[in-house]
Amino acid sequence: MEEFITLIKYAFLGAFQGFTEPIPISSSGHLVIAQELFGISISENDFSFEVLMNFASLLAVVLIYRKDLIRLMENGRKYVTRRNSVYKNDFMFIVYLIIGTIPAGVFGLLFEDRISATFRGIAPIGVALLVTGLALWLIRNLKGRKSDRNLTIRDALIVGCAQAIALIPGISRSGSTIVAAMGIGMKRETALRYSFLLYIPVSLGTILIKINDINFGDLLIPYVIAFILSLIFSYFSLKWFMGIMERGNLKYFAYYCFAMGGLILFIT
Questions:
Q1: Helix, strand, or coil here: 152?
Q2: What pLDDT, in 10s, does the model give residues 220-236?
Q3: Please, is 177 exposed, middle or buried when counting C-beta atoms within 10 Å of its C-beta (0-12, 13-18, 19+)?
Q4: What is the DSSP code string of 22-61?
Q5: In terms of CB atoms within 10 Å, which end of the chain has fewer, N or C?
Q6: Helix axes 88-118, 188-210, angle to 10 degrees
């Protein structure tokens, strides 16, 4: 019976993390909320669980943006080898992804442990959700004019710094990067694509750095179930979110963040 309960617990957390990862409501914050409000606790290997769920969401993003990734890699290689200006825009987009990755990488290495210690507990997550909601509300009606070919180094650094801010628990990574991207004039489609392609190198780097610390212990089967569910829910959640972005309905996520953030502060 205990093994079955453990399986259900990890399955729930895997699906929950997968659903919340792509949308701008902070998956890490909601995992903490789920554990606190529902009394769900995971093992001492929760660090391994976090890395594994992150990998599942990464695979979902790669699957959805696989055509963009293949195009960027092929055209980037062609620009380097042929110096044909036809491929320059895709090559520069890769450069901007690399530049946008730097702030989160640097801040993560230097301050991640300090940030985790400072913003420990559920109350700071409530405040962070209110901040996320306010940011989403402010850019809810923006449409932007910048496409992939209009980006600059400055744009990449601004969005990269926004991604670094998402190291704070409760600040959504997708929310902060999309808010920053739209705030500097990117079209919704461009902001969404840049945000999630930017997620790939940061996520992959985190996995590579921490892979040696992963320990499944006696939880291999629960972890596998959670991984599969996280992958599935991440995939369909991102597809759903892409439709919401296309229709310009970010305001609903702002409403949710206001409600959840307020509720958390009320009960703590």
A1: coil
A2: 888 999 999 999 999 99
A3: buried
A4: TTTT-HHHHHHHHHHHTT----TTHHHHHHHHHHHHHHHH
A5: N
A6: 60
* Closest to 69 (Cα-Cα) out of 156, 170, 197, 176: 197
pLDDT at 1 over 90: no
Task: Give the C-alpha separation, 116 to 168, whole Å.
Answer: 7
If you write DSSP's letter for every residue of 136-192 in order, what string do you get?
A: HHHTTT----B-GGG--HHHHHHHHHHHHHTTSTTS-HHHHHHHHHHHTTB-HHHHH
Identify the domain containing residue 66 by its residue range: 2-267
The answer to whether 100 touches 194, Cβ cutoff 8 Å, is yes
> How far is 153 from 159, CA to CA, in rounded Å?
10
CA dihedral of residues 164, 51, 208, 193 (deg, nearest 10): -50
Count of domains for the chain = 1
Question: What sign has the CA pseudo-torsion 54, 77, 96, 105?
Answer: positive
**Phi first, then psi: what are they for 208, rounded to 5°?**
-65, -40
Distance of alpha carbon 101 from its chain centroid, rounded? Answer: 13
Q: Give CA–CA dist 134/84, Å, rounded.
A: 44
Task: Supply the pLDDT for residue 44.
Answer: 47
DSSP string, 4-16: HHHHHHHHHHHHH
- pTM, two decimal places: 0.92
> Which helix (H) or strand (E) is 130 found in, with range?
helix 123-138
Is the Cα dihedral 110, 113, 38, 231 positive or negative? positive
The whole-angstrom distance between residue 13's C-alpha and the CA centroid of its chain comes to 16
CA torsion, points 249, 12, 259, 240, in degrees to nearest 10? 0
Handedness of CA 228, 233, 236, 237 (dihedral sign): negative
Do 178 and 23 form a contact (C-beta atoms < 8 A)? no
